[in-house]
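This follows on from our talk about sequence and fold. Please put the record directly below this note.
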Amino acid sequence: MESKEQQLVRLLSLTTRSLTHLTAAMSEMSFEMMRSDDPAVKSAGGRMIDHLAAIGAGLDQHWEQLAAYGDMPIPYEGNEALVELELKDLPQYS
C-alpha cells in the first residue's frame, strides 16, 4: 500500500501531466491560428504561443520538484519537442 505522501506525489504528477498535455494541445491550436489570413487571429495565435511558453516553463519546474520529492524519477514527455503539423482537410461524412 502506498503512503499518503506517495499518493500525493502520484496525484500531483498525474495533474501536471494533464496540464502538460493541455498546454501542448493549446499550442497546436495557436499554430493553426497563426496560419489565418486574419491579422487579428494571427496576432492572437502568436501571443498565445508566448503565454504557453511561460506556462510550459512553470510546468518544467513542477516536474523537477516532483522528481526531487520522490525517491525515483517521474516519467514525463518533457524531452519531446513541440512539432508544428500541417493538418489536411478531413473527408466530410454525411
User: Anything to note?
Assistant: The mean pLDDT is 79. Residues 4-34 form the longest helix (31 residues). The CA atoms of residues 3 and 9 lie 10 Å apart.
